[in-house]
Amino acid sequence: MFQGRNFLKEIDFTKAELEYLIDFSIHLKDLKKRGIPHQYLKGQNIALLFEKTSTRTRAAFTVATNDLGAAPEFLGANDIQLGKKESVEDTAKVLGSMFDGIEFRGFSQETVEDLGKYAGVPVWNGLTDAWHPTQMIADFMTLKEEFGDLEGKKLVYLGDGRNNVANSLLITGAILGVSITIATPELLFPEKELIELANQYGKTSGAVIEITTNPALAVKDADALYTDVWVSMGEEVTFEERVNLLKPYQINKDLTDRIENKWIFMHCLPAFHDIDTVYGKDVAQKFGIQEMEVTDEVFRSPQARQFQQAENRMHTIKAIMAATNGNLFIPKFK
Ligand code: CP
Ligand code: NVA
What we know:
The protein is of the alpha/beta class. The chain folds into two domains: 131 residues, Aspartate/ornithine carbamoyltransferase (Rossmann fold, 3-Layer(aba) Sandwich), CATH 3.40.50; 177 residues, 3-Layer(aba) Sandwich (Rossmann fold). The chain is built from 13 helices and nine strands. Strands 7-6-5-8-9 form a five-stranded parallel beta sheet. A four-stranded parallel beta sheet has the order 2-1-3-4, with helices on both faces. Strand 6, helix 7 and strand 7 form a beta-alpha-beta unit. The relative contact order is 0.16. The mean pLDDT is 96. The structure holds phosphoric acid mono(formamide)ester and norvaline (NVA). Norvaline (NVA) binds next to helix 6.
């Protein structure tokens, strides 16, 4: 079943397995709210490797590890030898001999795949340039909490159509039967193979996949609008380039007024919805815009669910760690 397995990208798990993780997360959230202990990893040690910065993922892994009765150890990019003085393979073998599980956030998907290959203990991807799988369990959990059912719902993602979050939404939605529309300029269309893969999954799940340059048309029958930063961590593009390209894809009231359904707003966070950040101020000064991917009005609207998503990161990461490392009894899925 789950025991001993890695979670490196969404396709590592079947539809039934992803659904189990979502439902188990909802259960763990309830236990946490009611103060019922759930120490499935008692006595374990968990390594948290971060090449890139993080607020939610780091906090979620730390709290989830503590709640599960295990001890977290944060190892930042400047703390260990990984990739600089020691190969990923050697590092994986060493950490795997001491820790019971390893989280990795960084640049290359290959690094996390290699950790998974050589560590001998479960490895969880806390975000790479390619995928953000733990984010997906939280996002689809949030959709389930909101709508009760996932199948047949439509999520429209607007903005950078080929970053880690867009890739992950495309594939996870396709597996789970949630229709995904990506509204983005042609320059930022997802890779062809990914679109083909999503369509392949869609044939079985019923998810309809659409990639479009027209945001106004895309949102009409949406149940959820989702966006992410216009420049991701580690990207070597300028804000100027992206601001010019993605301005028409901003989520603002003009756009949300076109939605005919009951809808929610989603964002993995962090978000540029005002100029209360260093980057936000810089962009405002240089390009004269106060908000990027979402306006402050939508971000603070009654439809906004980004902080529910953020909280759910903790419950879902807990579910992923417990399922893959906690010797749980889980019946066989088809
Ligand atoms: N959504 C997310 O991964 O947030 P952090 O970068 O703060 O971990
Ligand atoms: N696409 C963003 C997601 C942050 C959680 C990034 O990689 O920076």
